[in-house]
Amino acid sequence: MNENKQAPGVYSVPKEWAERAYIDSERYAAMYAASIADPKGFWGEHGKRIHWFKPYGTVKNTSFEPGKVSIKWFEDGTTNVSHNCVDRHLPERGDQIAIIGVRDDPKDDAVRITYRELHAHVMKWANVLQSQGVRKGDNVTLYLPTIPEAAYAMLACARIGAVHSAVSTGLSPDKLGSRIADAASTVVVTADQGPRGGRNNPMKANVDAALDKLPGVVTSVIVVKRTGAPVEMLQGRDHYYDELAMTVPDECPPVEMNAEDPLFLLYTSGSTGKPKGVVHTTGGYLVYAAMTHQYVFDYHVGDIHWCTAELGWITGHSYIVYGPLANGATTLIFEGTPTYPSMSRYWDVIDKHKVSLFYTAPTAIRSLMGSGEDAVKSNSLASLRLLGSVGEPIDPKTWEWYHRVVGGGRCPIVDTWFQTETGGILITPLPGATKLKPGSVGTPFFGVRPELVDEAGDVLDGVENGNLVIADSWPGQMRTLYRDHERFEQEYFSLYPGKYFTGDGARRDADGYYSITGRVDDVINVSGHRIGTAEVESALVAHASVSEAAVVGYPHEIKGQGIYAYVTLIDGEAAADELRKELVSWVRKEIGPIFTIDKVQFALGLPKTTSGKIIRRILRKIAEDKCTEFGDSSTLSNPTVVDHLIDNRLNRK
Ligand code: WTA
């Protein structure tokens, strides 16, 4: 065990991995250099990994120039994502399992869907969507549990050229409603209920609540019977999928799509209150998702790939559905949670379904680590070959545990860095090529040009800490923000003109390996889920007792970051514990249960500059219990407020 440990905290590439993996260190160096020296030649070649109805002539046509940001890949080619993920595999692997659907309750049998069955489901779904008026270019909102039907619906949209907009089930009816409204979806797909962790999420009821506030927008709600519980069905608007399916034909050919036609919208949080509709398109996205899936996970035929993300997040899109299925893989879709019905649920699923590639988030590992090694060791986990981590920084202690206890010391860990906006993984180890350093996300994938810059935008060379930017486009990059290209340019290309700004800080070591230090904007990462502080603040001030609120993140043992809210009350109301609880549940209701505030501190006032701007730097330090490290406070207009905040701080070591 651990025989590849080179120096403290460094693991060299195991010999058998260097031999069997697609990419070893020499190949990585050569391919990476080629991808940077000649992106058009490189991607022109690798673009061929998917099937094109009409081959592309132009490979790359991209500009990061301020005022003229435009990103196009393979722009004159035509293809169809559903054809590539399904039909294309039929001759060779029609009888192979495409999807294993594992339900929340371990007593329920898993469903095993072959590529041939997937084909039939997707065509049926496509016809059902069309029967509800969905046409090429229309946006369809999907609010579904992580079940095979969600993948059918996504692929069905792609088949007919509709654009799906998946919304996480952890978000509130209000947030769902604002996403439906922004996308102007006339059709919403949901389930009666969504079992998760032993509880039934009232999904249809949530849709009803969202639509109550949006009269006239949605003309059809398609309901998957997941539990069969009775739900209210509005005559004329709501239909059970099963009943619609009986009325439509079985066959539905894929529509020829331009490479730059949109494939999906995915809303994510930014540093202002309004969520951003990230737009991904067809050709470049699929090439990038498929290629990263193959090389990062070193996917080979026969591997069972399990990514534990929810389908409603980018990781679910790229590494449960599109990447694996484009490669003809078997992908496991899991509805449940890591801790239900016991702390060994993940490990039970791995053994039962012989999972070989396992991809999860640090927060899940940390929540399981606490229950000790026995919960893991009651399973063999012998099928595992490779482990992955995504969504937030993984601390070395958690990394070592994951490697030693889950991976038995023999499975490389790929700590993959990416974002909703990047479509696929940008910085990552490759298991046959890269040494592993716990806490480091390794080196850039092919075609990716990371740079570190200082506040002034000057590029930093060598061993450095800085803001992470990407100097040139890659095929999986987002193309725009839905109906807001100006905000797209403003948020991502204005601070460091000519470069894509990630919003993350990073460190580069002497080997050129990157470590992500966290967000440098007003975004908090809670259990791998992004939320803008402004979004939480506006939910808080919507409460009748709240006058002002400021929200910051602080280090949290399980969640990575916790949410710390400073609240001032109207009329100096008594700051009772009662109210504290009420505010926490208020925000859960407003935004969704995944974003539960951890600490509410009542304040006399908030630290502000003389021009009235809240000084968050001070609030972050108080939340971290580092009250002596405020730095320059000369612009502080109200020092007594800070003394009160320090005296009443809630995190004390
Ligand atoms: C963070 C999730 C450290 C980062 C794929 C990024 C990470 C944000 C890692 C994107 C990682 C993602 N190590 N931090 N391996 N992966 N992040 O859009 O701050 O939900 O900007 O996409 O998660 O979150 P998003």
UniProtKB/TrEMBL annotation:
Presence of the UniProt keyword Acetylation in the record: yes
SUPFAM superfamilies attached to this UniProt entry: Acetyl-CoA synthetase-like
Keyword annotations of the record: Acetylation, ATP-binding, Ligase, Metal-binding, Nucleotide-binding
Sequence ranges assigned to domain AMP-binding enzyme C-terminal in this UniProt record: 535-613
Pfam families: ACAS_N, AMP-binding, AMP-binding_C
GO molecular function, one term: acetate-CoA ligase activity
E.C. number(s) listed in UniProt: 6.2.1.1
Origin: domain of life: Bacteria
Domain Acetyl-coenzyme A synthetase N-terminal: 28-85
AMP-dependent synthetase/ligase domain span: 88-473
Family: Belongs to the ATP-dependent AMP-binding enzyme family.
Protein name: Acetate--CoA ligase
Record organism: Rhizobium lentis
Name of encoding gene: acs
